[in-house]
Write a structure and sequence with these properties.
Number of domains: 3
CATH architecture of the largest domain: 2-Layer Sandwich
CATH superfamily of the largest domain: Bira Bifunctional Protein, Domain 2
Radius of gyration: 30 Å
Shape: globular
Strand content: 15-25%
Number of strands: 24
Distance between the termini: 56 Å
Structural class: alpha+beta
Mean pLDDT: 94
Helix content: 25-40%
Length: about 575
Amino acid sequence: MLRTHTCGELTVKNAGEETTLCGWVHRRRDHGGLIFADLRDRYGFTQIVFDPENKATFASAEKIRPEWVLKITGLVRKRVAGAERKENPTGGIEVLAEELTVLSESKTPPFEIDQEKEVNEELRLQYRFLDLRRPALQEMMQKRDRFIGHIRSYMHGKGFTEVQTPILANSSPEGARDYLVPSRLHHGMFYALPQAPQQFKQLLMVAGLDRYFQIAPCFRDEDPRADRHPGEFYQLDLEMSFATQEDVFGMVEPLMTELTETFSDKKVLQKPFPQFTWKEIFDRFGSDKPDLRFGLELTDLTPLCKDAGFSVFADTVAKGGTVKALKITGGAKFSRKEIDDLTEVARTFGAKGLAWMKRSKGKLEGVPVAKLGPDLSEKIAQELNLEEDDIAFFTADKWLTACRALGAVRSEIGKKLKLVDPKSAAWAWVKDFPMYEWSEQEKKIDFSHNPFSMPQGGMEALDSKDPLQILAYQYDLICNGFEISSGAIRNHRPDIMYKAFAIAGYTKEDVDKKFGGMIRAFQYGAPPHGGIAPGVDRLMMVLWECPSIRDIYAFPKNGKAQDVMMGAPSVVSEAQLKELGIRVTET
């Protein structure tokens, strides 16, 4: 090694020893008679002192600049009294330089690395190799390593075997666009980067592995957003044979608790994690991933509004819709602009508007009051326990739209009134998802979640029930307003799989073509099995309160799904395209 110690290692116990350190110049200070430099590596900082009595070394030190890479040999000595830096582990010592070797010079960086200043993100990503030198990101990478190491240790301790599944795979309907990779040997044919190792992990169960996991790279061509990294992400992918839904819950829940309380300052709000059905959580909170660190539950007023004088409510109920309300204690103080802003939030999620009623100075006010009449208005106020200075917001629409729009208003109010406790982690399970949903875009029944899930009731339910009433053994794990994971008990029977896909419009030939490997495997004795796949990146983002998921990657894409450091995506040569049998045309 070029060094005897790291820059975060030396203490007063090493005083009097010779040492050799290597690192980057973090700061340089010329005090006239002496030159000081803080030498930095991933372990910490050590102060180096250059004395003019050592003429050759001092002359070299006069030339050094921030981010130069140096090798320093010298004597460890205690700092003079009063000059110690107790916040720094090496703050009790300094190294008197005897020899200085410049290992590498540096141009002036495009931004200051020694200060935690706001820097334009595009510039940071363009020079990510410099950005990663900053202590906060160094710590992030170390923390991420420990986080994933903890997961691996837990899974191995539970008898799981880590298996790496293929990256070049076949295209499969997983809910997003595939990234396609053209084949050089088979022109006109493509591999797909896996959106998840879904089929492979199920095949491992057929193979008798019993318990599988991996920290799996997943690839989805989705639009970027704060909690979704464009291109690739990582998940803890796991599958268990002969397991029920509750077995999966029991395996994952302790791990999530450990990760929360070991790697963040948050405490798990409720143990064991509460469980909600998909319908219940929408009814109560207007979302299948609500932030449960605060209350504000929705109230169903549909029965009260059946024959209401307010046509917006009455007509909705007559058409089979729902009237939902959300009471905000003390919300009567909201300004007209604030109410208008909340109305826009509701409209964004499909509502036609947002009605409101408040109790102020002993009276009920709001558009619905005049239409509903004093008696019904008071009944609704009592149902909501609307007291002085409270306000209630209303949506009236199809059940899901009414819930979702008011749920978005609830979320916005939670942020506005600062109702969340940042030191809490509100974990919960959401189960009993619908197997199917109506696709307005395609005008047909489609899978609402994972197509490989086992329908509750099996073949009998598929044969006899309205598809939109069939529930699946599907579940989500949520935390603080984010979906952390989805999972399911899988469909392991070919006859049920053919029928399930037929309801969604797929022929037997379609299923054989897309999932032939899995269908063939299930014909040779497949165990009942199930699993889940928590998003590792999103979980770290939530636990560490990162503004964007990009903050926890070493080399993230920008908001336009571009790698501005490496220049990806990029144009490739005509020779490469010809070899693949591809011609690019303008659109």
